[in-house]
Write a structure and sequence with these properties.
Length: 351
């Protein structure tokens, strides 16, 4: 039976060659993308590659040491040898190629579980890719939970982009244009520096968690490691930048990655115009989709409502996957790390 091969960042060339074999891959599966989140402290990025007789599969994860609080029990000392997996910030999940029948999937399942046990993996948390729609490809392995909706723009033509906008959004875009807002894009270092400043001010205003304050090295990684897959779109009013977004692209897909704006200019709707122009850019380079994501915590909140204005015709399903490999260790970690009742967070020991 075929096993799982683990590819690390140091094997970047091999990583890229493997990913290129899968027609559905996009920027989230590249080593250049995960480098920034390795720098951010999210874990060790690895590509898990399965090459079976009739089917190939890949899964991109961050490998993290499990949290272990101090304990007086000698049996707990071994817990420090365990890890868990999580999808890198964004979207992922298994990509499959070849014979994807149930028998082939069962073979992959057994090979994957053997690999996880051999490498002391306790659990895995997946955030599936709404555009690729791969959430239910491996239900034989994961407990799949469908959460909220996300918004994705159809870039098949500029006419289609405009048709799918809500009438309110069209008016906001026209308002921004009439107010003199201009949209530009580039990838100079100064743009990333200015983005960081505006973004951090935005995070201050919304009271964001410390996780979302990224270091300069994080932005440097996007600049240098994603030189063919990332642009900064920015809105200017006269000589001042008033809104900015980092847009990722690759293999026919655009993604709304990070965004920030100056609150005093929000009434001019610069981000509405920015996203419309980014969509038109994607159409011009032959991309098929522009994924905007959903609301906070998959809720249909103000953020979701804003994004929904860009495609009133269709929603995409966002789903997560849960896998417990070692029930005994998982339960003990929960007992040590979480004194509260079960919250639904997964893995529970990281709640």
């Amino acid at each position: 039976m075929a096993g799982i091969k683990m590819i690390e960042l140091a094997q970047e060339e091999e990583w890229n060659k493997i990913i290129a074999q899968f027609p559905q891959h996009d920027v989230y599966f590249t080593p250049g993308y995960v480098k920034a989140f390795h720098i951010n402290g999210d874990g060790e990025p690895v590509l898990l590659y399965y090459n079976g007789r009739d089917m190939q599969a890949v899964n991109i994860v961050m490998k993290r040491p499990v949290p272990v609080l101090r304990t007086e029990c000698p049996e707990d000392e071994a817990l420090g040898e365990y890890f868990d997996f999580v999808t890198p910030y964004g979207y992922g999940g298994f990509l499959l190629k070849g014979n994807t029948g149930e028998e082939a999937k069962q073979q992959l399942k057994h090979a994957y579980l053997d690999f996880c046990r051999d490498h002391k993996i306790v659990a895995e948390f997946n955030r599936y890719h709404p555009v690729i729609n791969n959430a239910h490809d491996m239900e034989c392995l994961y407990q799949v939970v469908d959460l909220g909706n996300t918004v994705c723009m159809d870039l098949s033509s500029r006419e289609r982009i405009w048709e799918n906008l809500s009438s309110k959004n069209r008016n906001m875009i026209r308002k921004a244009q009439k107010s003199g807002v201009q949209i530009y894009w580039g990838r100079e270092e100064r743009l990333f520096t200015e983005f960081e400043q505006i973004y951090n001010a935005t995070m201050d205003k919304v009271g964001a968690d410390s996780y979302y304050y990224f270091k300069k090295e994080f932005y440097d990684s996007i600049l240098y490691d994603l030189k063919d897959n990332a642009l900064v779109f920015y809105a200017k009013l006269k000589d001042e930048i008033i809104a900015m977004s980092i847009i990722l692209y690759g293999n026919g897909q655009l993604h709304y990655h990070l965004s920030a704006s100056r609150r005093e200019y929000q009434n001019l709707a610069p981000t509405n115009l920015l996203l419309y122009e980014a969509a038109c850019f994607g159409c011009n380079i032959g991309a098929g989709t522009f994924h905007l994501g959903g609301g906070l915590g998959s809720r249909q909140d103000h953020l979701y409502s804003f994004k929904k204005q860009f495609n009133r015709a269709q929603d995409f399903q966002f789903s997560i996957g849960k896998l417990i490999v070692n029930e005994q260790v998982y339960k003990r970690l929960w007992e040590l790390n979480n004194k509260k009742k079960e919250t639904g967070f997964f893995p529970a020991y990281r709640a």
